[in-house]
Amino acid sequence: MDPEAAHHAALLGLRARAGPRARADRWPRLRTKLAGLDLPNPVGMAAGFDKNCEAADALLACGFGFVECGTVTPLPQDGNPRPRIFRLSEDRAVINRLGFNNKGLDAFADRLAARANKSGIVGANVGANKDSVDRPADYVLGMGRVWKHASYVTANISSPNTPGLRGLQERGALEELLGRLREARAPLTASHGSRPLFLKVAPDLDETAVGGIAELALTFGLDALIVSNTTLQRPHHLTSDNREEKGGLSGQPLFQISTHVLRLFAEALGGKLPLIGVGGVENGLTALAKIKAGASAVQLYSSMVFEGPGLVARMLDELDGLLMAEGFDNVSEAVGVERA
């Protein structure tokens, strides 16, 4: 099946409650805290799968400890021309150049509000429209609209498929963005209560850039960093015919790249800010490797393309067993033990 058609079919199936069932809190050893959030387990659904907040509760029912919906932009947009998703099956990887396709903030906020009285940690990932003349304003607008009903908010400045978006990671642009978010956050907190604010960064960062972003994250009071989005790199070992397609690479080949950058952030932050590890998480071993490198929680997406949503419960069972075998009473004890 065409990858994008398969994606929509998966969403429809989940919404129809055809997915697997697993209690997210079945493994007491995996219960943990992240930026003040009580997570039943540290394995989350990454942004990009449920862009329009249509299947959050179905994903939670699969066993995810938390779900991040989006990326949502203020105005609906179609994204880039099709085809724009490519499986690299031989490499257990995906390349996408979707371009923030979504139904817009109004539809997203309405769906998020509709689950106001339901349990489960559901975050909102916000971005900027491709043709926006004031991208920081898009983030401020997005944060304001989802704040009341989101468990947390993530500013995504790391997609490679919106021209110029990653420029927001440069120091001057990031100072402006984080300053405006901090200013807008105060009245939202006064009106609707406190929410954690996260920042999602790219894996294609050198040590200097990592240090600068870490410094600004602390200065402007962010609550966590998500490390990382897809990569523009193309490792030499890729074998799929689709390996030269343009876009962001995710899946197994991203694991080493993203975990290296995760370690750099863990070292730069020295435990002052929690990290969420993303990129190539596909089983208990890779989840634990991210945690030991400094992640308080992990997220996945591409591995579900190849394994299906039943992967979540299998991964949690594996992670619990690995922690027990290594003598950890709780997953939080393993965070950063191999950071240096």
Structure, described:
The protein is α/β, with parallel strands linked by helices and 340 residues long. It has one domain (3-334): TIM Barrel (Alpha-Beta Barrel), CATH 3.20.20. The protein has ten helices and 13 strands. Strands 3-4-7-8-9-10-12-13 form an eight-stranded parallel beta barrel. It has a three-stranded antiparallel sheet with strand order 5-6-11, with no helix packed on it. Helix 4 (135-146) links the parallel strand 7 and strand 8. Helix 6 packs across helix 7. The mean pLDDT is 97.
CATH fold-level topology: TIM Barrel
The profile of the biggest β sheet is: 8 strands, parallel, barrel
| Beta-strand residue fraction | 15-25%
Strand and helix order: HEEEHEEEHEHEHEHEEHEHEHH
- What is the assigned CATH homologous superfamily? Aldolase class I
**Cα shape:** globular
Work out the helicity level.
25-40%
